[in-house]
Amino acid sequence: MSKIKDILSIELENDIKNVIDLNSQNEEDIKDELDGFILTESLAKHLSDFLDVFCSDMKESGVWLSGFYGSGKSYFAKMIGFLIANPVIKGTPMRDRFMPKLIGLKNKEIIENQIRSLDKTDYQVTLFDCAKVDSSHGISYMAMSHFLLSLGFLSNWIGMMEFNLMLENRYDKFLATVKEQNAGKDWYDIRKKMSAVPALKKAILTFMAEDEYEETRKLIDERIKTYDATKLKEDLRLYLEHYPEKKIVFFIDEMSEALSQKKINLLDLEGLSEALSSLGNRVWTVGIAQQTFNDVLNASGLNIHQLNKVEARFKTRIPIAAEEIDTIIRKRLLAKTDSGKEQLEAYYDKNNGMIQDITHIAGVSLNATKDEHTYADYYPFYEHQFKLLQYFLFGSRDTVTSQIGTRGMLVSVFDVLKKEAMTEADVFTHVNATQLCRQAEENIPEALRMRYEQADNHISKEGMKYVEGRALLQTIHFLEKANAYTTIENITKSYVRRPEDYYSVLAEVKKALEILVERNVLITSGNQYRITSQIEQQIIDDMNSFSAEVYRVRAEITKILKQQKIIKVSQTLTSDGQAIPFCVESSLGENFVNAGEKYMKVSFYDVFHEDHAQLVASVKQDTQSQKGIISIIPSSVYGTEIFNRSQELLKIDYIETKTYHTADEKKVVSNIVSTKEEKMKFLTELINKSYTEGTAVYLFNTYQLTDANYQKEIESLQRKMFGNIFYKRLGASLSDSLAVKVLTANSTQLTTMFGGSEEFRFFDSAGKFIGENLSVSTEILEKCKSYCTGDKLEEELSAPPTGYKFGTIITAVAALFRGNKLIAKFNGEDFHSVSDALEAKIFDNTRNFAKASFKAVMKSLSYNDRQEIVDILKEDCQYKKITGENAPSYNLNDFELVDCIRTLSKRMMDKVKDKIMGDDEMELLFKRSVQARNVFSQYTAAVTDASYIATARTFLHAKTLGDIKHLATETFYHYDTKRLNMKKIDNCILNSTIFTWVIQNVTEEFDKTGNDMNLIRDKKEQFEEAREKDLVANAPLMKKLTQDIKDIYYDVMKHKAELLSEDVLALFAKTDELKCQIDQYPNEWNTKPYRKIEELEKSWKRYATVKVNLDKWSVKCSNTGMLLRDIEYKITNLSMVKQEVNLWDTEIITQDPTPNKPDIPKLPDTPTPEDKPAPKPIQRNMKAKLPKGTASVAEYRSWLKQQLAMLNMFGEDDILNFDN
Description:
Layout: H1 4-7, H2 27-36, H3 41-54, E1 62-66, H4 73-85, E2 88-89, E3 92-93, H5 94-98, H6 108-116, E4 122-129, H7 138-150, H8 157-167, H9 171-181, H10 187-190, H11 196-204, H12 210-225, H13 229-242, E5 246-253, H14 255-260, H15 266-277, E6 283-289, H16 293-300, H17 308-313, E7 316-319, H18 322-332, H19 338-358, H20 372-378, H21 383-394, H22 397-401, H23 409-419, H24 433-440, H25 446-460, H26 469-481, H27 488-495, H28 502-518, E8 522-525, E9 528-531, H29 534-545, H30 550-562, H31 565-571, E10 572-575, E11 578-581, E12 583-586, E13 591-593, E14 601-604, H32 612-623, E15 629-633, H33 639-657, H34 663-673, H35 676-692, E16 695-698, E17 701-704, H36 710-725, H37 738-744, H38 747-750, H39 775-783, E18 788-789, H40 790-797, H41 806-818, E19 822-826, E20 829-831, H42 834-840, H43 846-851, E21 853-856, H44 863-876, H45 879-883, H46 894-915, H47 920-925, H48 927-936, H49 948-957, H50 961-970, H51 982-1009, H52 1014-1029, H53 1035-1078, H54 1087-1100, H55 1124-1141, E22 1179-1181, H56 1193-1207, E23 1215-1217
Parallel strand pairs: 1-6, 1-7, 4-5, 5-6, 12-14, 14-15, 22-23
Antiparallel strand pairs: 2-3, 8-9, 10-11, 12-13, 15-16, 16-17, 18-21, 19-20, 19-21
Helix pairs in contact: 3-6, 7-13, 9-11, 13-15, 19-20, 21-24, 21-26, 23-24, 24-26, 25-26, 26-27, 27-28, 29-33, 30-33, 33-34, 33-35, 37-41, 44-46, 46-48, 46-49, 48-50, 51-53, 52-53, 53-54, 53-55
């Protein structure tokens, strides 16, 4: 396989310079630097901008060139300096050598013309690094000394003397004299040695006297000591006057660093700018800095008005972006051969998904490698690594403002290629973060070096293929310092060198990180990893010195366990929509939830046991006969880790409460505490796994739990326990708020109050009590054979095996009370009446119910007897009119009804005595009333538990019942016979009886059909009031009111009849549809369903158009013979018929039921079909089950149709098996 060096275009045999030296003027160095310089489009733009300003006539002759350390700004500045100075390199001027760099640039011609325009002027260029040179005499002499050097003079007092000799036009004579006096040796050679001063003096003395020489030297020394901007201006002016065709250019490097090191200050620079401004644009100053000019000003803390000269001088500011070094590196160091580029692009095309994933570093704004050209350009690096390297090198102020231990991007990349032997590696191997860290960081802090060694020691023992401890930590250090997230994924992506090894490396990285965290070499914060610092180690040592007691660890684990889903699952079982509670507690008796549940318990053992099998065996033995305990024994696999993790959290709690003083200590503690949530989450997962992967024990049987099945297994065991403990428990329950409603509801409401459960079907649709044989009734009546208090009922019936809820008990007792199956005693008083019980508030609250006692009624009236008594009292005897009390209803119990008989009898006897007896005319008018008076006397005795049945039956079977009815209609209609005509009285009584009968009939129809009584209530009351006041005088009004009530009845009946007709027409539309379906097939196939349809239509045809007609005082329709109740019944019945008809389409036969069979010749001795035994019925396994849960009517109807259609395909004698 090819090596990386084979696909690179350049040789990497020699080192490249770390830092550009502006003072280096060596011809070979200049040539090499020029050859290595990459002029990018952006740098070309900056060069053009510089030359545009430089070649102009602008007064402010200063340029500020800025860029981060290693960005190439010094390199760029030196190239500009050489272009201006234009030295001849091996016979070729610098500007000519530079021109090829312009080839391919957008503005090649413009820049070339700008460079050529430099030929018009002669320049004296001075380049120096102000952060590295002696600054003891200030920036002005720093500039002058390097100006002397650029002229070929020394930078000290000798150079100043040489400068003066030059200005006096005596320098050439001086050089000749030195050479003459020193046997032909040049001054340039002599001044390099100690003999320079004597040689200088000897030559100078040929021009001046010795005392003059000494005085001159003394003046020069003094001038250097006090050298300032003014003196610099004077010296430069002298030079410019001596050479009027020249301009002076100063390139001053690392200005911002020199300012931060206090070698120079901005006020000195301000003075220098002010002094040089008087020289116009004949003296240029190019400042080179890491910081922008504005950043330098802001960092100085000086008032901007103090620096107006320096700001004005450096109005032109050119920033060198980070992208420049990126481009330079790719073109200078990473250029590929054509064949190499093809290999790399083909590799990317094949592995682009993997490469894009590996180069996606989460948490930082970096570009993933998304195309083959980018991949090939940066290889063996990735694009994002350059940005990370910049952040690593220059991301903090320390690395920007100090060169100690820092390296430029160019050199770092070069060293990775050369010193990491990358060029010898196989193609498709990549640089990783470890190599970048190793080559970009020279001076490693001792604490970090120790961590590297610790990591090596721990990981080397694991025998890993890819991961080494030191290398892993270097990757983490690189990412952290580059401000990237140090997640497992980012660490692995930055560590791996070949994309295809990613998942193998990921597995080892995970394991190594766990080891290093456990050994405290690393510390986690959220999902990130950091190298443990010295302070962190100190805090960790504090944590490790703390040891929590076992009981605290148990308490911490129990606290977490209580919050787990397995506890929630264990505390409740939902059965038939009813929530059944279970007591959940620890095996040591600590309750978790539902402490009040006595009979069913789920017990959780703790995680600290070594022999799981032994504990399971012990629990099986101990609980083998206990139907009310399910035991959950956790897996022992995680016990030790759970203990250690719990200890760790308690240790974090310990340092969180401990006092630390320094800010660094507090920050470390805060970081450690911030990991609590993640550690708690992990511990919670362990505890949850321990129990969801544990063992359940019930009645000597064991059940292995898993995360997938534990809910189902526990629920199954709960159902078994529930069935074993509460084998008489009901499938549903009732609310205690229903108890009072049961007593106050009307008859038609009773059947719908109990949720539709057959277990609570106390009443039928008419309000008749039919629940005597319900299991709940049986249990209550059994307990109440003698008086039993409510609290005792609750205590006994809430316990196994019934387990009734309080709401079920109190509501069932209320239903039995209303159904006349119980009588009550409360505060010493007997209660048979619902109204009296309501008034006493027996069922209003738990306290009253608990105090009350209840006894079963051993005998009772039949439903028909009770209904007959109500009808007689209400309709025949005009109970309300006679007694002034509400008429009895069907809701009254036996005691209440008999009491109504007693009340009516007493009131009737009193009325007869007061209004008729003693008045001969009245006694003659109401003879039957007088005769029937004695009948009532037998019903006036007090109603008792022993007598009420006999009284009721006597009332029903009395021979004089006709007298009772007659007396009820006659009693109040008496008048003074002396003033009234007897015939008129008789007519009024007759009409009143008829009107009363009509109104009673209408009222009865409204009552039985549930229509709104308010429609007739006012008119009924007006009628009764008129009849009560004056039977004769109010006869016309009574007739009108009766007609009004009858008209209201007619309107209601007509509306109901129209509804019936609409429903019948809708039914016929459905039957027409069915007949159309049948007509599609031969008639003989569907004679049966067709006949059913015809019979149905025939039976309902008369109701398709119902016209209501009521004769004079009749409430029955003369056209149909129906009462209002009959129409209501037809509407209800029709609804059920329609539901049935909706299923008839499944009975339609769509295939020939008797297909012709081919004739089969009869073989000898073959029995005829008549001889063959009848075929045996086929057993059909029915897979479809009744739907569960809820379903719409349409969904249920569709299901029924499917089942019926399938049945049509079976034989009549086939057997259906539903238990398969």
